[in-house]
Design a protein that fits this description.
The complex is a heterodimer of chains A (about 240) and B (about 230). Chain A has about 240 residues and is α+β, with helices and mostly antiparallel strands. Chain A is built from five helices and 14 strands. In chain A, strand 3 and strand 4 form a beta hairpin. Chain A starts with a helix and ends with a strand. Chain B is α+β, with helices and mostly antiparallel strands. Helix content of chain B is about 30%, strand content about 30%. Chain B contains five helices and ten strands. Chain B has an eight-stranded mixed barrel. Chain B is elongated and about 115 Å long. The chains are: A alpha+beta (about 240), B alpha+beta (about 230). The interface between A and B is large, with 73 and 89 residues. Strand 1 of chain A pairs antiparallel with strand 3 of chain B, so a sheet runs across the interface.
């Protein structure tokens, strides 16, 4: 009995090849499964359609009394004016500057219209560590809105500490040694926190993120910005 | 009673009724109320510290704004609304996404910021300038995928794609891309919590799609202006 239940060595199991009918049946089942999977797959994922008009927006509760309706209308009209005025007050009017710091483009805008596009250079995003490791500078152009605080022709650059560290020089003991002319080009428009829009000696690098945070422009674009942008203009950097 | 007064009173009443403006229609009031709601939200966004996108399906524009200032405007070719479904069964409610402020918009795949750290040389009197390599252009630095998402907290995402005419060419390349898209969508829709509860499929020109990808600031907000 025990022997009969244990498979013997050399005993092979023979699987019969399906007959023609069975093959046709198996193929049909296979095709049906594939069709079912395709059908299910087609209905899985994201179903797209056009956006519906006013979908999902709840209308306010409206009174039925005509007088109350008129009162509500007056209130809504007043609110509409109030919000519209608030939005207009917040928006810049006339000339403003937009800087796309990732793509290194500067736009002079006038009432939402681009009046000049310039290739610029913005912050490299590089981190410079002092040789001792005690100081660290991050060369980012900040995002946000800034005002043009001052405009200077033939600006003289007061070199900050990082400029000496980058050049491997010791910090000067004489403050006069920090001043350098010509580096910033013909004009500088001072924003806040020491950031500027200025010219450059390295015009071949325009369009690349190479600066220490300032916005560099080529001579022609700098002249155009200088002419178009008065002190107090908003500069939006994104 | 003086009978001569009656016609005068009747005339006065009729005149008063005629003088009173007609009560405004309910749809007009509803529209005005919704307009106010949207204006209020735009004021709220404009007062905030974050950048925001305004998607206007009627004007077919996607506008990047900050403090009510227009920074960039992209022309939208077409907009479609997508809802997740599994075997034709919708898995999310595709309403209530317009006229609402969506927050914390982030690119997927993310735009990598590879910060280079440089150690300054020890200072000498003459100086030893460190060698800084010429950085890549934005186009070299940030390659843009053919299809990307801006995902907002709460389940809405904007899926940006270039028009078919500007996407991959060649039958097999297109078939492969379509299969990959289907697989990614099927996976996203089949999760326990679908990756996106509502997806806005926005078609921008290749140039605009790339520009938006490279320029989008982090944590951008979104307001979709309903078609009133």
């Amino acid at each position: 009995m025990h022997e009969a239940m244990t498979p013997h060595r050399g005993v092979s199991i023979v699987i019969k090849a399906p007959g023609r009918k069975s093959r046709v049946g198996l193929t049909a089942v296979g095709l049906a499964l594939v069709a079912l999977a395709m059908f299910a797959g087609r209905g899985t994922g994201y179903a797209y359609g056009p956006p519906a008009l006013q979908s999902g927006l709840a209308a306010p509760d409206l009174p039925t009394d005509p007088q109350a309706t008129r009162k509500l209308q007056a209130k809504l009209v007043a609110q509409n004016k109030q919000f519209g005025a608030a939005l207009q007050k917040l928006a810049p009017s006339g000339t403003y500057v937009v800087v796309d710091q990732t793509q290194n483009r500067l736009y002079v805008m006038n009432d939402d219209k681009i009046v000049r596009t310039a290739v610029c250079s913005a912050g490299s995003g590089m981190v410079l560590k002092s040789s001792s490791g005690s100081k660290k500078w991050v060369f980012d152009t900040p995002r946000g809105v800034f005002k043009v605080r001052n405009k200077i022709a033939n600006p003289i650059w007061k070199k900050p500490d990082w400029a000496f560290a980058e050049e491997g020089k010791t910090l000067p003991t004489n403050p006069e040694d920090r001043f350098e002319s010509g580096t910033l080009g013909k004009y500088a428009l001072y924003l806040e926190d020491g950031y500027m829009i200025h010219g450059t000696l390295y015009t071949r690098l325009l369009g690349r993120s190479v600066t220490h945070g300032c916005i560099r422009l080529g001579p022609e674009d700098l002249q155009a910005v200088w002419d178009a942008v008065p002190i107090g203009t908003s500069v939006y950097i994104f | 009673m003086n009978t001569g007064l009656l016609p005068a009173i009747a005339w006065a009443v009729a005149a008063a009724v005629a003088a009173a403006p007609p009560a405004p229609a309910a749809p007009d009031l509803a529209r005005l109320s919704l307009q106010n709601d949207l204006l209020q939200k735009q004021v709220e966004l404009a007062k905030g510290k974050e950048f925001y996108l305004l998607l206007d399906p009627r004007a077919q524009t996607l506008t990047l704004m900050f403090r009510a200032a227009l920074l960039q405007q992209y022309r939208v070719g077409s907009i479609e609304v997508g809802v997740p479904r599994v075997v034709y069964r919708p898995r999310a409610d595709a309403s209530n996404w317009e006229g609402r402020i969506w927050e914390k918009g982030a690119l997927d795949p993310a735009r990598a910021l590879d910060r280079v750290e440089v150690q300054a040389p020890p200072p000498t009197k003459e100086g030893t300038e460190i060698e800084i390599k010429v950085p890549q252009t934005p186009e070299e630095k940030y390659p843009v995928p053919a299809r990307y998402h801006i995902r907002f907290a709460g389940g809405l995402s904007i899926e940006v794609r270039p028009p078919n005419s500007e996407s991959v060419r060649g039958f097999w390349a297109r078939a492969g891309a379509n299969l990959a898209t289907w697989w990614a969508d099927a996976k996203a829709a089949s999760r326990i919590e679908p990756t996106d509860t509502v997806r806005l499929h926005v078609v921008l020109s290749k140039q605009d799609a790339e520009s938006l990808y490279r320029a989008l600031p982090p944590d951008t907000k979104l307001l979709v202006l309903p078609q009133l």
